[in-house]
Design a protein that fits this description.
The protein is an alpha/beta fold. It contains 16 helices and ten strands. Strand 1 and strand 2 form a beta hairpin.
């Protein structure tokens, strides 16, 4: 395989002088040399986690910027290149990329973009060609990196060793706990801004730990996060708890869900957002379910088995330490989530977020978070079937469950979305 100076791949036997436009499947690749020259743009999908996750990449020498572009201009940029019947998260991500590249802040000749992928059977697995097609129209020199563990892009140009992958795992655990403690403190804080201040201080401490070898002190940093938020003075006034479940992007991304967490806080509620690690474990265990249900054993099966045992073992420890500290409600035990799923739907239903959505709704309902927003991109069939489609069964199991599915798409107005949630909150207040 030959390479031209631009970083484009050329087919075997083709002339290096051939025009890139001659080949519809040619696209720029991120090469090792670009690590020193290029800034990698990351869409703002995980506001609680990306500060920590990108620190791991920076520690490996990558220059990374998390994008925070918002507003109608971002959506319109996405609509120029993505059909509005395609996955709404793809539209948001592409819109943020193009908005940033057109802002003048970045040199397009020294910029790349990064997308994470699970490799599932939904349209999210087509993000790579969608992004490349959009960039080819306006910034054809910008390469796309894919962070995935499913073989979607075997030569992504991103070089992370086993130690870095382990750091990413710890970063997710710490980000989950940080998110949970903040949301359990912010609605009750006696002095406005205390929770945000502690969040910023804790984040900087964790970033320092991730830059070195100190990050492995799981118990130390778990107790550090718990104690930091426990030190905030709070009022004991009860608040309505509202769980957020749904498609992975709109569940977490402020751009994707119209700042849902902030809206719930403004309404005097306590947002309850399931852990990102639950989604990671869901992706891992689905590979083990393939063996159990279909006999589909591969050479990666022992790797997934080890990864599940290691990650779940860490999760159980964090839950145990959280209970011992006593101030905060621990996040869900993943094996308990699997048991909750079995009450509603078969674990073979794994397209998109699949069985994880009804599992989270059931676990929330039985632990006192009966009011739930099911956030779904318009037309996301896995989400509608396993999310909205499971609501009736959830309500049969938990009669007090108060669930509202909310669609997020380029034509949906924030007013309509918030009005639907306000109706759900009105019912919640009546049930108090």
């Amino acid at each position: 395989m030959k390479h031209v100076k631009s970083g484009y791949h050329v087919r075997d036997g083709a002339s290096e002088n051939a025009s890139v436009a001659d080949f519809t499947d040619d696209y720029p690749r991120f090469t090792p040399a670009m690590k020193a020259t290029h800034t990698i743009l990351v869409p703002d999908m995980l506001p609680w986690h990306f500060d920590l996750l990108t620190e791991v990449m920076r520690e490996k020498g990558y220059k990374v910027d998390v994008l925070h572009g918002e507003g109608r201009s971002v959506i319109d940029e996405g609509l120029k290149h993505v059909h509005n019947d395609t996955c709404y998260p793809a539209l948001c991500v592409i819109g943020q990329y193009l908005d940033a590249l057109k802002s003048g802040k970045y040199d397009a000749d020294k910029t790349a973009v990064l997308i994470t992928q699970t490799g599932g059977g939904c349209r999210a697995s087509n993000y790579l060609p969608l992004i490349r097609k959009a960039l080819k129209a306006e910034f054809p020199q910008v390469p796309v990196l894919s962070l995935n563990f499913s073989g979607l892009e075997k030569d992504s140009g991103l070089q992370l060793d086993l130690g870095s992958i382990r750091k990413l795992g710890y970063a997710i655990f710490y980000g989950d706990l940080l998110m949970s403690c903040f949301n359990q403190t912010k609605p009750y804080e006696a002095r406005e801004g205390d929770s945000a201040k502690v969040r910023a201080e804790v984040t900087e401490t964790l970033k320092t730990a991730l830059r070195g070898g100190d990050f492995k002190r799981l118990k130390y940093y778990t107790e550090y996060i718990l104690n930091a938020f426990s030190g905030i003075q709070v009022h004991k006034t009860p608040k309505i708890k509202v769980g957020i479940v749904g498609e992975i992007y709109v569940k977490y991304s402020p751009l994707g869900n119209s700042h849902l967490e902030e809206f719930l806080l403004a309404e005097g509620c306590e947002p309850v957002v399931p852990a990102l690690m639950d989604f990671i474990l869901y992706c891992v265990v689905n590979n083990l379910n393939d063996v159990r249900l279909y006999g589909r054993r591969t050479r990666m099966t022992p790797v997934f088995r080890f990864a599940y045992k290691w990650l779940y073992g860490k999760q159980k420890k964090i839950i145990r330490w959280t209970k011992a500290q006593g101030r905060f409600e621990p996040q869900h035990d993943f094996e308990h989530l699997r048991a909750c799923a079995d009450k509603v739907i078969n674990q073979g239903v794994k397209m998109g977020e699949g069985w994880l959505i009804p599992a989270e709704m059931a676990a929330l309902a039985e632990t006192g978070t009966e009011n739930i927003v099911c956030a779904q991109p318009f037309g996301c069939l896995p989400n509608h079937i396993a999310g909205k489609g499971a609501v009736r069964v959830i309500k049969q199991l938990y009669p007090r469950a108060n669930i509202v599915p909310v669609d997020y798409d380029p034509s949906a107005t924030r007013v309509n979305q918030e009005n639907r949630i306000k109706l759900m909150l009105a019912t919640a207040r009546e049930n108090c």
